[in-house]
Amino acid sequence: MSRLSDVISTNYTDADLDLPGIVAPTGTNRNKVNEVLKTELGMTFATYLNKLRLTEAARLLAEKNGAAVAEIAYSVGYANVPYFNKLFKEEYGCTPKAFRSLSARPQQPASTSSPNVRPPSEDLPAVGFPA
Predict the structure, then answer these.
(1) How high is the mean pLDDT of the chain?
(2) Which domains can be identified in the chain, with CATH numbers?
(3) How many C-beta atoms surround the C-beta of residue 67 within 10 A?
(4) Distances, alpha carbon 97 to alpha carbons 15, 17, 78, 106, 129, in Å
(5) CA–CA distance, 76 with 3 (Å, rounded to integer)
(6) CA distances (Å), origin 119, targets 3, 40, 102
(7) Which of 2, 10, 12, 11 is CA-nearest to residue 126?
(8) Which of 29, 90, 86 shows the shortest CA–CA distance to 4?
(9) Most confident of 1-5, 65-69, 112-116, 126-130
């Protein structure tokens, strides 16, 4: 796995993680980090970080019924719960609480499931610097 992916996947739960926090441990500059992410994934650092955090939050919401939404938001790197709720709804089409309720239901055939709720994406692809 690439150094960039390692650093992001190891530190994504840090609410203070930002682009300069990725640049130093990867030994590159911010332009190169964004260039690699744009080329390989078609998204910026901030977008990739949010997708990673939201994917993990969706997994935790489905698996940890006893954990509060705020606890999950904090555990994946969001210090601001309303902001987490806003991003989650934009990504999945429902609130985290509704997502948890829907994920607890037995799976329905695709033709009768809610069209607005998208399942969490598969593991996000690893990114790296060209050799």
Answers:
(1) 84
(2) 3-112 (1.10.10.60)
(3) 13
(4) 21, 26, 16, 17, 38
(5) 20
(6) 28, 23, 10
(7) 2
(8) 29
(9) 65-69
The answer to pTM > 0.70 is yes
Show the tokens assigned to 83.
Answer: 């902001």
Q: Residue 95 and residue 84: Cα distance in Å, rounded?
A: 10
CB-CB contact of 44 with 33 (8 Å): no
Q: How far is CA 105 from CA 31, 54, 101, 118, in A?
A: 44, 20, 7, 15
> 93's torsion region: left (phi>0), alpha (psi -120 to 50) or beta?
left
DSSP character string of 25-73: HHTS-HHHHHHHHHHHHSS-HHHHHHHHHHHHHHHHHHH-TTS-HHHHH
- Classified as helix, coil or strand, 125 is coil
